[in-house]
Amino acid sequence: MNKLFKKLLITATAILSVICYSTTAAFAAGFDVNNDDSVSVNDVTFLQSEISEFTDNMYYDLNNDGRIDVNDVSFLQIEISNQSVENNTQISISTKEYCKNVGDTFTISVDTNNDVNEITFTSSDSSVAKIISTEKSLAKVKVNKVGNATVTIKQCNKIITTKVKVEKARCIDLSEWNGDIDFNKVKKSGVTCVILRAGYGKDDNQEDNKFKEYYRQAKNAGLNVGAYWYSYATTIDAAKAEVRNCMKTIQGEEFDLPVFLDVEEYRQAVLPRRTLTDIISTFCDGIKSNGFESGLYSAKSMLVDSAYPDELSNKYLIWLAIPNTSYSDLPPYVDIHQYSWNGKVNGIPEKVDMNYIYNLNC
């Protein structure tokens, strides 16, 4: 026997001796080389014997490299080892049901004894619970709408599921006029989201004086954060300038909620509906082009009487101020409902605007 081949064969046999194989059913055509209707360590032994006789039977070229040699033995060993790992895979999760609020992001962690095969995560309804990233045994999930979804986790032939129940989010919106705030108390009160005024208008030095402070403190308290920009724009050019000014303030920040254009000035209400609709679209599209989700905040009367609500709601999230109105009486396109201007929240000394978030899918 060729000395080099003998050395390779001894090495392959040594590798085999330290791997614990389980007998498996034939899992791929051609791997049952001894024709005993199973693929196991016996096929490796058989193949080693055949190769030692310098066979030229291409049936044994398992790795399809055009040669019959010790590499085919190694290939068969690896395939059997992988199949053994797959057949003995066990996966589990600690939480069978997650109860979250719209806007929340959470992580599903899987315990597995298999570090070889990929774990896949799928959601039964991505509009409710969207899988935004995966890494080995972890999946990050964002919940975007009131409803229920099931996340299915699969590794090899093992499947487990977890339920995700999503409720409306309690949200407040804030500006510098709200003064000093204890955001930890706000969080403990049951509020999960805040939308902060970033600034206003198209001119420099119009950032909200509390924006950076509020942003930092709200993030540290574990709240989901969004922003809004108060608009004075009455032309397309002014709307573009407001986009630029807004981006100077928010660039580099990470938001859990969209960036909204706040439209409520009388000078805007008296514009032609086409003009105001185009101003809103210009701002929202400009924000989107910079990588942020966007939407519109306004009063119901202004949106309905001064713009085209159906057109805007098909493209952007709609945050509407309709105080003292129940959810069942809202227009169907409302995603966020500002239901009170006189709310009281622990941690905030003065009255505050109150909102419910039902949907964050654009």
UniProtKB/TrEMBL annotation:
- Annotated keywords: Signal
Family listed = Belongs to the glycosyl hydrolase 25 family.
Species name: Ruminococcus bromii
Matches recorded under Gene3D superfamilies:
Dockerin domain (1.10.1330.10), Glycosidases (3.20.20.80)
PROSITE patterns named in the record: EF_HAND_1 (PS00018), GLYCOSYL_HYDROL_F25_2 (PS51904)
Which range is the signal sequence, renumbered to this chain? 1-28
Protein name, as recorded: Uncharacterized protein
Q: Pfam family of this protein, just one?
A: Dockerin_1
Q: Which PANTHER family match?
A: LYSOZYME
Q: Which InterPro entries does the protein's record reference?
A: Dockerin_1_rpt (IPR002105), Dockerin_dom_sf (IPR036439), EF_Hand_1_Ca_BS (IPR018247), GH (IPR017853), Glyco_hydro_25 (IPR002053)
